[in-house]
Amino acid sequence: MKNGAGFWTSETQMYYDRNKIVRAEGCYLWDENGKQYLDGISGMWNVFLGHGRKEFAEALSAQTLQLDYMPNMRFYHGQGERLADRLTNLLPEKFSHVYFTSGGAEAVETSLKIARQYWYNRNFGNKTKYISLYESYHGTTLGAMSVSGDPWDRIPFNPLLYNGIHTYPQYCYKCKLGLSKEHCHFACLKDLEYQIDFYGAENIAAFILEPVMGVGGVIIPDKEYLERIVHLCREKEILLIFDEITSGIGRTGTYFACMQYEIYPDIILFGKGISNGIQPLAGAIVKDKIFDIFCTEKIEEQFRHGFTNSGHPVCCTAGNIMLDIMKSEDINRTCSEKGLLFKKKIEDLKKEVDFIGEIRVIGLMIAIELVCPRTSEGLNIPGLDFYLKQQGLLVSQLCQVVCLMPSVIISEDQMDDMLRILKTAIKTNIEKAGFSK
Known about the structure:
alpha/beta, Aspartate Aminotransferase, domain 2, 7-stranded mixed beta sheet
């Protein structure tokens, strides 16, 4: 077998001629042939502080020698205790407990089970359904896919575990309902109300959504949109879960995106950046009212759930080092400032490239919509991300959206390099594909 064919990764079938990466430092990767790649997506949106931070290597080595593993069913450890306290202290007082997992999909699955059993314990056993948004992404396990909104990922696995209810995101630039923002009066929320009435609030356990949608194309909603959702969920007694696996831990310029809106759900999910990609770590942060419902002597009402490596002491050490660095280096402020600088540079690029439409930026979550200037229709350039990889730039191509999520250590020169390569790639591939203005 050639080119690591035995190593089955998520895109083995797409790229038969994959590159073997041998080293990473800062915002760069190098393959076995010495080719350098500018990492515009910080790994899988998770290496927020850049590659090769020595602080992690030293702390994780020391923790491994002191306490490398322990089962968390009957014990707890200092690193997990400290990390849970620090995460809950970032949020309002009502958030009190953290359930750690090994990855984002596990965190989603955990939150779905928490919501379901929360209502079971309160004698509302019919509340078994979940609402989520079209175009959303919550992971690739069967449960997480059931509440994700991309139909293409779901097709081979139907019927899924849950018969999920889907409603529309506030994607005003390309409104799924074909309306303009000036005249829609939050029609997307009217559909949510319709779905709740149709299926019955008495049958719905939770609404799970990304406050800033990631894979869906960095969709940034208005504050009023989220406020109305919170109000509706409270009124209808539906738990609200914010999936901040991508947007959390500083990516938007605050520890969690919901902090910018000053709007809080019942459960917050985190992952990706919490360990800078060095250890598998994620989790669910819950309010008192959620945790307290499981504090019972009845075995069937206890939360009998867990993973072999959830709350792993070495993983939690990585989480604590991440928060240490974020505080000492004022990472949230740096992220906000660099996001604004990047946005200005992309706006300048738009003046030179007719095929750039809306630019969406919050912190260092960046989306560039490609459009046909004549029709304003979305322009999906097949293989653009693969071409950019050949030119030494890694991006995420989400149909007509080019997504950048660089590390917070990115320099202004590296921003310029990214946009220079992107500009050439767009023009070259548009000509090659025969698109016209």
